[in-house]
Amino acid sequence: MNMCNMHTLVNRIEGVNKYMHNTHKNFNVEELHDALLTIVGTFNRPQRDELMIKESGIQLDRALFPLLVQIGRFGPIGIVELADRVGRDYTTVSRQVAKLEETGLAQRQKNPKDRRINEAAITLAGKGMTEKIDTARAQIYSGIFQQWCEDDCIVLTRLLQKFVVDFTAKEQGRNDETMNPPA
Questions:
Q1: The CATH number of the domain where 38 resides is what?
Q2: How many domains does one find in the chain?
Q3: Structural domain includes residue 27
Q4: For a Cys-Cys bond, which of 54, 59, 67, 121 suits 76, CB 3.0-4.6 Å?
Q5: What DSSP designation does 145 have?
């Protein structure tokens, strides 16, 4: 019988302090946190951006790469929020967005609801570049998930989306159960 890895339950008891306990959950939070730190660390490596630039066949300053990707995914996005997302100083990000604007990949605009907020939006040229990046990412992920069963990929995506909703809600000081996607 071929069972998907995520559907296989493995229980190990290594110490009470490492586990989250309540009536329904018993898992090692440290293992989850270590996995998340590894993912975040991998995504934040400059070599990862260089690989994506190379695989995409684009010409872009590596320092501008994460900004273009974030603007493409979440834009129009406020410069302050963009700086927060990439872990850089607001003034640095503002200068880098100006470089993206000079190259025709992004444009600055005022938020229509709050004119005090400066936003970055993707241009058609920027969208063309992010589409090349998306294609390269899909090829890389395809290789990673080649040995995974389809159900594992679907469950991983669903659970990560659920985690993001709950985690960001908690981070923003709210924990509204109606925000959670169905399990």
A1: 1.10.10.10
A2: 1
A3: no
A4: 121
A5: T
- Does residue 16 form part of some domain? no
User: Is 47 within a domain?
Assistant: yes
What's the pLDDT tens digit per position in 28-79? Answer: 889 999 999 999 999 888 899 999 999 999 999 999 999 999 999 999 999 9
What separation, in Å, do the N-terminal and C-terminal C-alpha atoms of the chain show? Answer: 25
Q: Strand ranges (DSSP E) for the chain?
A: 19-21, 26-28, 77-78, 106-110, 118-122
pTM across the whole model: 0.75
Task: Locate 20 and state its tokens.
Answer: 């989250």
Please name the residues in contact with 158: beta carbons below 8 A apart, sequence gap of 6 or more.
181
Convert the pLDDT of each residue in 102-153 to its tens digit. 999 999 999 999 988 899 999 999 999 999 999 999 999 999 999 999 999 9
Q: Is residue 13 part of a domain?
A: no
Give me the helix-helix angle, 124-144 and 46-56, nearest 10°: 110
Task: Identify the domain containing residue 141 by its residue range.
Answer: 32-168
